[in-house]
Amino acid sequence: MSQKPEKGDPSFFQRFFSLKQSSTTKKPSKLMYIGILLAAGVIFMVFSNSLTTSMNSGGLLKSASKETSAPPVSQDVPAFSSKKTTTMTGYEERYEEELKDILDQVRGVSKVKVIVNLDATESKIYEKNSVTKSQTTNETDREGGTRKVEDSSTDEQLVIVRSGEQEKPVVVKTEKPKVRGVLVVAKGADNIEVKKSIIEAVTRALDIPSHRVAVLAKKG
């Protein structure tokens, strides 16, 4: 008794197509067409699945490469990396440097150290338009006496000029900050004449009275 070939047998399709070739005189049956279509469908499905898998794996690799090539996170910069100098401190340092340069050139004076103490920062005086209004009223009391009452008021407004898109007040002049006191420590200041020369130089340079200047002799 002959065994019926199973569909899982690898020679099933070979026998199927050999029977088709041998029966040239017979007309192909519907079963044969169905088998051909099924085989083509299986091949197409296998090919599609393999193509989709390769594309997905490629997309994952691209995503991974993009993630690894991301730019590094910027580091925090210290907020207090430098200290700015105020206007008053800038004036004090400039006065101290200029006085030191002058006193170093005085005969008998050397190794000078100067400290300047200012009262405030520079002050600016602005241009103003003043409008003064005055009114005089004559009043009479019950006894027949008269008196004159004068009332006046002044309205001041800053003069503003336009510079590009900004508006700025007009500055008439800028006054330097007032000096409260000066301390000078120098070698040779123990000599009375040298000390007088130092005081005179400082008072004339800064236009301050002599009682605001202290001069001390440097040891060594």
UniProtKB/TrEMBL annotation:
Transmembrane residue ranges: 31-51
The keyword Membrane is annotated on this UniProt entry: yes
Disordered as annotated region, ranges: 131-155
InterPro entries for the chain: Spore_III_AG
Listed Basic and acidic residues bias regions: 139-151
Keywords recorded for this protein, A-Z: Membrane, Transmembrane, Transmembrane helix
Alphabetized NCBIfam families for the sequence: spore_III_AG
Name of this chain's protein: Stage III sporulation protein AG
